[in-house]
Amino acid sequence: MAAAIAAFFILPVAARSDTPYLFQNPTLSASQIAFEYGGEIWTVDRAGGQARRLVTGFDLEGAPYFSPDGSRLAFSGNYDGNIDVYVVPSSGGDPRRLTYHPGADVAVGWTPDGKNILFRSARASYADEDMLYTVPITGGFPKPLPLGMAEFGSYSADATHLAYVPTGQWEPQWQRYRGGQTTPIWIADLADSSVTEIPRDNTNDRNPMWVGGTVYFLSDRSGPATLYAYDTLTRRVRQLMRDNGLDFLSANAGPGGVVYAQLGSLHLYDIATQSAHTVPVTIAADLPQVRPHWMKVGDQIQNANISPSGVRAVFESHGDIFTVPALHGDVRNITNTPTVADRDPAWSPDGRWIAYFSDRSGEYALHLKDQKGLQQARVITLPSPSFFYTPTWSPDSKKIAYSDKHMNLWYVDIDHPRPVRVDTAPYEAFGALSFNEQWSPDSRWLTYNKQLSNFLNGVFVYSIDDHRPRQITDGMSDSRNPVFDQDGRYLYFLASTNTALTSNGLDMTSDQHPTSSNLYMAVLKEDSASPVKPQSDEERVTDEPTPSPKPSSRAGAKGAHASSAAKPSSEGKPREETPQVSIDFDGLLQRIISLPVPAANYVQLNAGEAGQVFLLRAPLTTVEPQPPPMSVLKFDLHSRKTLPLANGVTGFALSFNGKKMLVNQDDHWSIVGTEAPADPGEGAIATDDMELQSQPRQEWAQMYHETWRIERDFFYDKHFGGLNIARTEQRFAAFLPGIGSRNDLSFLLRQMLSYLSTGHLFVNGGAQPPLQHVNVGLLGADYSVQQGRYRFAKIYSGQNWNPELQAPLTQPGATVHAGEYLLAVNGRPLHADQDVYSAFEGTAGKQIVIKVGPSAEASGSRDITVTPVRNEGALRNYEWIDHNRAEVDRLSGGKLGYVYLPDTQYGGFTNFNRYFFAQVNKQGVILDERFNHGGQIADYIIDMLQRKPMGILVPREGRITLDPPLAIYGPKVMIINQYAGSGGDAMPWYFRNAKIGPLVGVRTWGGLVGIGGYPALMDGGGVTAPRIAIGGLHGQWEVEGHGIAPDIEVWQNPQLTRRGRDPQLEVAVQTAMRMLREHPVPHFAPPPYPNHHERIPR
To answer: pTM (2 decimals)?
Structure first.
């Protein structure tokens, strides 16, 4: 007992001074350096030494900044589940909250007088751009700077000018990046918003620091990012330090110097001596996120299965394998391996083993563990290191089939563990490649589906005896999910003949095509009869005379007949012995028959008892961003009826005996019977009791190495752009001891992956300390301050008939007008010395009463009941789109249409279909893809824009139209910007290649690779590895890392945008109108009507 107590109550020990702590975002005062580490803020003397924790107990989301006199620190914290600006005395004390908007408010500096904090926010954004604001340290309403898009800034000493970065980056760590999001530094005159750019050649210039007549900054213009200086008088740039190693990641200027961080160290540059030295820092404190702790993991389930009789479920969660009882017993962690990731469990049919993949050895192997987890696991080494999927037991519990990332299907005999390759798929998949492999009842055949060269799937069977795969479908339909009937005479599968364009989900043309499949059966033996031959009720003839019916027995005779008809034939009775499966391949195609199940979009098929199969049915079409709920059905071959068992499920697993199934509904797991439909909530199991002791440092090390395995196996270039990833993994592993929080791990992963010099290398999520979230309601309005009160400067009207665009202040009977004052909220007066949003904490989605009136003195005021929304971004975006459409109409005299495309998946597909075809009466169109976040390849949109007139339709009545009529045949211009990427890179690229029209704006992001389908990290976090590259037709990678340059470059000049103008939109309209004048829309006259009868016959 004493030893156990000692393990949990260790006194803090000073770490070694050479520990490579992952310091971030340092800031400098005359006597101190402050920095972020382990999600907290620390300070240390300028000369170095032992750091002191200043701010703790939260998740830091923004860098600390010393005030000009060094007495205070500004930072952004996440105390209440919301990122806001705080200020704290640099000597310690309670932080004071200054902003309350539910969006992220991130501190980036101070005004020179130390009275206001400079921060960035997207609170007033119509897309996803940030702007800069100042907020008084005494509190109050923030004021925007008149610059439009802006991310970081530093004032001149007299506060008349600002050196700022106008462009944000999705992946700021991307090495050698030269796409549209490279970051210039602009010098702005705040009086008129005129700007001068610090000279550069499309490099990444960051962290502007204005000291005297010099702007210091970081840049990668000569290789790894290092320190430069710009003289504001001579307008010349000079490099201050050479850097042949790690990037300078962040920097901040203070009295006499610039403090900067490299990975694992802090440094101080002395401006007077023009020299730099390392600042030695030690940490002697406990780190809350490093401590071992017990945690619930029922919400981290990655893979699930069910025991052979359905008495337990088995789950993969947080890297361990758990079993959970259906009714009685305890929840068991059968692996309990904090340093190891255990994945994808499957229970053997005899109940003896649970198979799973584990990386205990450093590479994944197949492990077999007893169901109680008491014995050492049996380990089967697998060839060719990889990630492996879906261990599938044979019915005799002696063999396991599985697949790997390299597109191979395997099986292994557990008593003779030498894996055998069954087949290899021809095409890479974006998710885990699914062969949907299943065994025959006698364990001698394996059936599976595999994609063919025509992109459809075919059904195959593989013989364990002769090791031959055989295709049994003709390849003219998309055939999937084969399963053997339990009596061994039939093979069921699903097939679709209208898959068409949906076989390639990367393309937008695959969206919203109704795809249905039917249930089919292959009769395996030539001499077997169809089990669904025509039925006919016939009277039985016997040799014995039929007794005269008695009046009292008539109902009984009818009942007996009904009972006899309902009795299953001997074919449906379970067999005592395992049936032997034999397949006659000659003529097998002619023995494939359709079963009487309604056509639907079936996505899963499982065999139950003999003559029973279970289907998972999805909606016919969906372009929703989230997977739709589905339904489980059971088809009985003997009754020829389909029984619905469960609705609203996201997946199910069937027990080996077919009597139970594990279902997931609304993130709740249940084990239910398969004889009758399940009631909601029936059979719920105790996944909330799944818990383990988390060992953060051990888990972080495992996830670090897991990340490199993901890159090794998934990255599209097996040479990794020349990077030696084994050596890189070893190099950055040295920083693992310096991790102080889960976010530190993500920071390290981003930095090391940056050396792959490719986009879409995202690092997401992971287990974080729990935070209580306090929502803040929004009214869909802009405010100004007048006479000490808040005044409505603008009301966003939305579309109240649309649930996603309901505006709180324009509802019938509760209308507020611009120019009126907001006087009180729920009876509490509101004045300008209070942040307006602080009055709306906890009100999102709830009815409240606001007092509004025409004057600040409250005369003529009225009370209105409103319901604030959680996010008004959609209202602002709609207002911007609607304004742009009206502006295009005004500037073109009604001749041009306007279509905004927010992405190349759900939003873009929906917007294009709604707004393009509603404007086919226009002579030309402006396509605006600024801030397009991609998704798919927008081939559908390109196809529609390329439509050309093929003929004319001449009716007896009404107008003559071109065919196809639903097209715009005049000029088309596309607007692009640096926030259009991925699919938003591909769309203007294809637009240009198809010669549809010119591109106006600025270069796009430059990230055109395909991602998807990676194993999650142990704690539910994730990393991506671009697995498909997209190149041009002329032997070049034309987009990745560069973006698509416009034909007509137009920047959003702050001098114009501050006056409400949109230079890019204006030039696009001017260009389209010029094209329309030069090439008017063609008009085609109908030919003369024929005269077949000049004379009427006599």
So the answer is: 0.92
Residue 1001 DSSP SS3: strand
pLDDT at residue 1097, as a whole number? 72
> In this structure, is the dihedral angle defined by the CA atoms of residues 992, 997, 1003 and 1007, taken in order, positive or negative?
negative
Residue with tokens 């030695």: 280
pLDDT (tens digit, 9 = 90+) per residue, 937-996? 999 999 999 999 999 999 999 999 999 999 999 999 999 999 999 999 999 999 999 999
Q: Give φ, ψ of 889 to 5 degrees.
A: -60, -40
Chain centroid to CA 881: how far? 25
| Tokens matching residue 999 | 């591109």
* Segments of the chain scoring below 50 in pLDDT: 1-16, 546-575
pLDDT of residue 347: 99
Coil vs helix vs strand at 686: coil
Q: Where are the beta strands (DSSP E) in 906-1021?
A: 924-928, 951-953, 961-963, 972-976, 999-1001, 1009-1010
Q: Name which of 388, 394, 381 is nearest 409 in CA terms.
A: 388
Identify any residues that bridge with 849 across adjacent strands, giving them in sequence order: 865
**DSSP 8-class letter at 1090:** P
C-alpha distances out from residue 698 to 702, 703, 704, 979, Å: 6, 9, 10, 38
Domains detected in the chain: 293-530+579-691 (2.130.10.10), 781-869 (2.30.42.10), 892-1008+1043-1078 (3.90.226.10)
Cα–Cα distance, 886 to 867 (Å, whole number) = 29
Separation of first and last alpha carbons in the chain: 122
Entry field: residues in the chain:
1098
Give every CB contact of residue 900 below 8 A, 6+ residues apart in sequence: 881, 884, 911, 915, 928, 929
The structure tokens listed for 161 are 């000018």
Q: For residue 964, is the peptide bond before it cis, meaning its omega torsion is within 30 degrees of 0? A: yes
